[in-house]
Design goal:
InterPro entries: Cro/C1-type_HTH, Lambda_DNA-bd_dom_sf. This is XRE family transcriptional regulator. This protein is mainly α and about 150 residues long. The protein folds into two domains: about 60 residues, lambda repressor-like DNA-binding domains (434 Repressor (Amino-terminal Domain)); about 70 residues, no CATH class.
């Protein structure tokens, strides 16, 4: 397992940042970043800095501290595997359904599978999912309004 200083350096370099730029993004002094990456100083970021790094660069605290999981905020890299498993467990026709209610009536485990998979998504993907759900709800309401002419 690589030490935290290597993961911090990797994160900074992957984002094309100098120590000063990295420090500014997470609201610490450039000297702090230098200490964290130093081969000669056993310094690690404090809790506030770790949280700031995690949120600013969308990486998990587990990855920062322990090198566990991919560096994303949650196992986002695994989302493709979860999506594949989800789609394998559903008949092809389910993706052609026009409403969640129809899908839920015919496939009772669909909603459970979707919610379970959603819990594994990173923050950005959850926000995208919420936006998608809001848009689908809006479209469903439009379809319902158009299918029932006003009395």
């Amino acid at each position: 397992m690589k030490p935290i200083k290597d993961r911090l350096r990797q994160l900074r370099q992957e984002n094309g940042l100098t120590m000063a730029e990295f420090a500014k993004k997470i609201s610490v002094s450039p000297g702090n970043v230098g200490d964290w990456e130093s081969e000669y100083r056993p310094s690690i970021p404090g809790a506030k800095a770790l949280i700031s790094i995690s949120q600013t660069f969308d990486v998990s605290l587990d990855w920062l501290l322990l090198g566990q999981l991919p560096p994303t905020a949650s196992p986002c890299v695994c989302r493709e595997q979860h999506a594949e498993r989800l789609s394998e467990n559903l008949p092809p026709s389910i993706w052609e359904k026009n409403s969640l209610q129809m899908a839920n009536d015919q496939e009772p485990d669909l909603l459970h599978s979707l919610v379970s998979s959603a819990s594994l998504l990173c923050k950005k993907d959850k926000l995208i999912l919420v936006e998608l759900a809001a848009r689908l709800l809006q479209l469903d309401r439009q379809v319902a309004a158009n299918s029932h002419p006003p009395s």
